[in-house]
Amino acid sequence: MSGSDSNGRVPAGTAHGPSPAHHAPPPRALPGGGETRRHVLVAVVLNKPGVLNRVSSLMRARNFNIDSLAVSHTDSDDISRMTITLHGDDVAVEQAAKQLYRLIDVLKVQDVTAEPTVQQELALVKIRATESNRDEILRFVELSRGRVVDLVEGSVIAEVTGTEGEIDTFVSLVRTYGIKELVRTGAVVMARGAGSIEEAVKK
């Protein structure tokens, strides 16, 4: 029979045309195209005007939406510390951290997402209160390890501290009473153990 050998087999490349000379390579994974998760970056910077703007501008240029950004002085008057929380995949965040470190006045950048840390956040929540539910709100704030910092007719201002998740839980629960106003500091983070990112800068 035409187009087959003596065993009846069709030679390669004749049934569906000639065989390709090579196979196309598998698609390459694009940097920054993986699974998104929460990251925490700590940046030690010189306490100079414009540093915060340069840091936030770089993150914006890399299309990151910063979830929270806390900045404060350290034990050294000329050094400040930033705690940045954002969502992104590991590759994209690693590249952003490297670019942050190249900025003038940035002394050290560390991704502490996978490290054992102590993380705390503070929130002030102004809760709608009535004569009938004020006592219930006060008890709930106390049970949540918060404290009342202002109490007037029609509202209660509660101060609560804890992890981001603990603050989220508190806010969702008091939402049933009605939230008139809410402000959060964003997370501040410190690695556990004897090491220090600030000591590493001073060496």
H/E series:
EHEEHEEHEEHEEH
Put simply, the count of helices is 5
Rg over alpha carbons:
28 Å
Low-confidence stretches: 27-32
Short description:
This protein has 203 residues and is α+β, with helices and mostly antiparallel strands. The chain has helices spanning 51-61, 90-102, 134-143, 164-174, 197-202, and strands at residues 37-46, 66-73, 79-88, 106-111, 117-128, 147-152, 155-162, 179-184, 188-191. The longest helix has 13 residues, at 90-102.
Characterization of this structure:
The chain is built from 5 helices and 9 strands; from the N terminus they run βαββαββαββαββα. With 203 residues, the protein is of the alpha+beta class. The strands form 2 sheets. Strands 5, 6, 7, 8 and 9 form a 5-stranded antiparallel β-sheet that branches. Residues 27-32 have low confidence and may be disordered.
